[in-house]
UniProtKB/TrEMBL annotation:
It comes from marine sediment metagenome. Residues 265-293, 296-325 form the 4Fe-4S ferredoxin-type domain. Its cofactor is FMN. Belongs to the dihydropyrimidine dehydrogenase family. The lineage of its organism: unclassified sequences, metagenomes, ecological metagenomes. GO terms for biological process: 'de novo' pyrimidine nucleobase biosynthetic process; 'de novo' UMP biosynthetic process; thymine catabolic process; uracil catabolic process. Gene3D superfamilies: 3.30.70.20, Aldolase class I. The keyword Oxidoreductase applies. Keywords: Oxidoreductase. The keyword DNA damage does not apply. SUPFAM superfamilies: 4Fe-4S ferredoxins (SSF54862), FMN-linked oxidoreductases (SSF51395). GO terms for cellular component: cytoplasm. PROSITE patterns: 4FE4S_FER_1, 4FE4S_FER_2, DHODEHASE_2. This is Dihydrothymine dehydrogenase. One of its GO terms (molecular function) is dihydropyrimidine dehydrogenase (NADP+) activity.
Amino acid sequence: DKRGMIDIELFSELTLDRWEVEIDLIRASFPERPIIASIAGGGNPHEWQEIVRRVEPHGINGYEMNVSCPNLGGKEKGEDKAEQNTKAMALAVGWVKEVTDLPVIVKLTPNVTDVAALAQAAEAAGADAVTTGNSLSGLGGIDLDTFAPLPTVDGISIFGGYGGPGLKPVSLRCTAVAAQALQIPVIGCGGISTWQDAAEYLAVGASIVEVCTAVMWNGCRIIEKLTKGLEAYLERKGYKTPTDITGKALSRIGSFPDLNLSIKLAASVDDSCNGCGICVEACASGGYQAITMDSDTARVDISRCDGCGLCVGVCPQESIHLTPRQ
């Protein structure tokens, strides 16, 4: 499924001892590159602080606190999950900040109703930045022969983490919400597979972005493609750095009363229409029956068109556009 994938893994197969060796190898190979350690712990200071004390001497440049993995469902030993509890979040951030002067980033979850509250709790506790966000809690599917949930381990599964392109609208919203609520930088993450995706995250308030699934699917070579595409876009638009467009779209994101409901739109079809008829079916199923075929070209009855945009979304040729109603 190219829209995304579900994982039910936890953190790492490597021990902390092994990670100390691996970080040394990475630092030796890339002496000038920053290394951000992704760390996780439980509801006590020892677990978080022990990791920091162990890895920092090996050339770490900062930390990203993973308090948002959806695969650790439920509470353990009565502990509040930091990903969904502002007090637990603040405690965990404080524990890490006690033992390091390096930048601390908190990776937030999209699996909450109030992303801003969690982001503000992280900021108040001393976080230097937040990442929005981690994977979305989901279920991969059901094997209809055995009725085992997927992915399955001996017939049993759990709600896993959904990531990939399908996550982008959710994470894009989380990034915008956090950027509107915070003074510290926001890192955008979720569904980025093109330079356009990265630029959109910057536009809603991200200072930098993270890419995971696209690298897993395409290899690290995709990074060069993304950076070159973004650089070309910025040059074409007259911007010098990616942060020049950070937050450019934020002022345009409001609430429903901010919308000008007097503006009415209607669909129009350009000459690239190939007569596939997909829009006709979509419009009929949507209840308006405003599109018909005429000599293998889609025609819009403006008097019936509601301007909903469904036809624009389904057109494989990108031949349909919404324009102001005359």
